[in-house]
Q: What sequence folds into this?
């Protein structure tokens, strides 16, 4: 079905308007981050002079080296655990027949509808009772469990669309389930797996409520939590606040651009190529 020139032009105009609405606030934050503090009133304004030192000042005054280290540790741990467990469980639900598989799968899907606000208080008391509150485990384990519902759902759908002829050929060659999963199915499925990893990384990096409730020690604060405390101390220092916001958001932006090709391929569906 061919698209007319007029329809294509209208599509480009609408998409350009949406892109403009999304980019203007980001451009304003960047302008604010490089504006000298004495000249910054918080309004959208092109700076007459540039002060890159705002980033260094925000980094040092906000102790973001510690906060970013905590966020990297938690995010990498959650992504690795979620990816491995989701691949294993997704393969089991998609390709293995066992008693109660459908019931267990739909029970796990309930996790997609359960917000953190619904379980954060019981979670705090449960972790405190076993001595895990104010530890990295208190951040990693709940967020892994929180991401597994989506990860299993995502990987199950991907593995169900995997060509059955290839799986049957691998079985005829004597490949057991574990070997077939990691050597036959996973390599051509890297695009959807990487898409899942990017999404889980974004959610974990931006998580605020769980660190706020479960973490007390300053050295274990994650970047978004540290940014909130930094904002409370510099309410009117717009240059430092904008610079700190860019510092916190930059790792995820870089991650997306590095994995952009695989992310888009995975979102469009189907089995990606290596």
A:
């Amino acid at each position: 079905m061919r698209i007319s020139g007029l329809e294509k032009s209208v599509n480009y105009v609408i998409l350009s308007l949406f892109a403009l609405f999304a980019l203007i606030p980001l451009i304003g934050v960047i302008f604010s981050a490089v504006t000298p503090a004495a000249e910054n009133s918080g309004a959208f304004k092109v700076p007459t002079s540039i002060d890159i030192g705002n980033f260094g000042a925000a980094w040092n005054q906000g102790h973001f080296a510690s906060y970013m280290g905590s966020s990297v540790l938690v995010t990498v741990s959650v992504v690795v655990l979620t990816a491995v467990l989701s691949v294993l469980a997704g393969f089991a639900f998609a390709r293995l027949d066992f008693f109660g598989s459908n019931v267990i799968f739909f029970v796990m899907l309930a996790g997609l509808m359960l917000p953190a606000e619904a379980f954060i208080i019981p979670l705090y008391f449960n972790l405190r009772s076993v001595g895990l509150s104010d530890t990295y485990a208190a951040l990693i384990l709940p967020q892994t469990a929180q991401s597994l519902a989506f990860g299993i759902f995502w990987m199950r759908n991907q593995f169900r669309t995997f060509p059955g002829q290839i799986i049957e050929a691998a079985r005829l060659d004597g490949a057991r389930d574990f070997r077939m999963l990691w050597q036959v199915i996973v390599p051509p499925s890297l695009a959807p797996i990487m898409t899942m990893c990017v999404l889980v990384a974004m959610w974990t990096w931006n998580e605020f409520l769980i660190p706020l409730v479960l973490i007390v020690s300053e050295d274990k604060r994650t970047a978004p939590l540290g940014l909130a405390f930094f904002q409370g101390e510099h309410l009117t220092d717009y240059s430092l606040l904008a610079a700190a916001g860019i510092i916190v958001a930059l790792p995820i932006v870089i991650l997306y651009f590095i994995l952009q090709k695989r992310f888009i391929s995975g979102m469009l569906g189907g089995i990606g190529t290596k």
